[in-house]
Amino acid sequence: MFSVNILSIAPILCLVGVSLIALAIEALVRNNERISFWVVVLGILFSIVISVVTFGREESFGGMVSGGGYGSFFGILFLISALLTIVLSREYLRKCHRALGEFYLLVLFATLGMMIIASAGDLIMVFLGIELMSVCLYVLAGYLRQHMKANESSLKYFLLGAFATGFLLYGIALVYGSTGSTNIGVIAGKYTDPNLPYIFWIGLGFLLVGLAFKVAAVPFHMWVPDVYEGAPTTISGFMSTGGKAAAFSAFVLVFAHQFVHGQSVKVALAVVAAASMILGNVIAMSQTNIKRMLAYSSIAHAGYMLAGLAAANQLGRIGILFYLTVYMFMNIGAFGVLSLLEEDQDRNLTLGDYAGLGSKRPYMAALMAIYMFSLSGLPPFAGFLGKYFVFAAAVKADLTWLAIVGVLTSIIGVYYYLRLVVLMYFEDGTKEMLGKPSIASMAVLTLAAAALLHFGIFPSSILSFIDKLF
């Protein structure tokens, strides 16, 4: 039994060991940034290997850790997200004169929290994972503390995050009070009980509010634009991918089921999804700062994925996981390009700054165009299939109106995504893009673009794994 328990959390233990080694290096070695970087990168790669080897582990620790490959799948996703972020961040931090080993350590601990969330079989574990992830992201959002916007983003994120945590914890307390358990499997088994007290549904509503804040769904989205704009650019990408995927992993565990009062829960999720798609896309059209545009875009994409969650069927769950996978490459790639071209005082972050990029930096412009095409949902890129799966799931669950809202708002998204592409290739710009990106950064961006094309043409290469998780 001991060996089964240890194997079930082997990737998490591996990441804890790497984090402690990096922490010791940070405390004991001077000028440690280079050492910390390679220790963290190699440690993440080793953790990915461990996750692959232990894929599909059994339920353990008395049901506190969930069985199956669900946690392993998300763990690999989080580790890849952290790896891409760290490689891109090294050059960005040097440019900002803040290249310190503590940055990599914070990313590791945030990733650790994400892995705990996805592996959770109990709401207490979900709460602990969310808090570990959130505290690290609060600090990372304000990492460039010499910038006023960074301080503002960190403070806003912390205050609103603490408020949302109160909802989440009180929801867990009400659910426990009405069911006598915090085990997710036990609670899900109660959904078909017609005699559940109203306090249970109130607690579930509080859980919905707490998780909706973490995925940046309307009306709990207020923090997103300011936090993404003020945070280090690579961390904005990390929060919008890893952080969102972690919250959705908990969302699927708790809410992707059929309820005895299923219509009420389905309508609530569908309304939140529709509001997120509409508000995110409409407001994104008016943005001139690309980071803010991508922030509102992130709200819209949360709505798309919530459409699959509202469907509460097999296709919806598969669609969410596929969407989260390709969204990681889309957003980290887009924010990665911004981080390489960004200069001091938030320069090279507006749409006008990218005019003529296609002639000045053709390869960088081509990569950015691929990310924009995929985010807008154009074939043959993977973003198209991500939207197709969640909208098809909504139609299958008799939520055709929600799928129609998704398609119409996606057309709005095409406008502001392709506006950037038009500026890069069909407008003349006087702005000079200085600096030469490192080989490692360009390799990461190329890998992300290639992954979008691969999953768009050969989706079965990942769908065959996702289908076995449920």
Give a structural overview.
It contains 20 helices and no strands. The protein has 470 residues and is mainly alpha-helical. The protein has a domain at 267-470. The model has no long low-confidence stretch (mean pLDDT 86).
Write down the oligomeric state: single chain
Instruction: Assess the beta-strand content as a share of residues.
Output: under 5%
Give the averaged pLDDT, no decimals: 86
**Helix-residue proportion:** over 70%
Shape: globular
Could you describe the largest sheet, including whether it forms a barrel?
Answer: none
Distance between the ends: 25 Å
Can you count the beta strands?
0
How many distinct helices?
A: 20
Low-confidence stretches: none
Write down the Rg. Answer: 21 Å
SSE ordering: HHHHHHHHHHHHHHHHHHHH
Q: Structural class, from secondary structure content?
A: mainly alpha
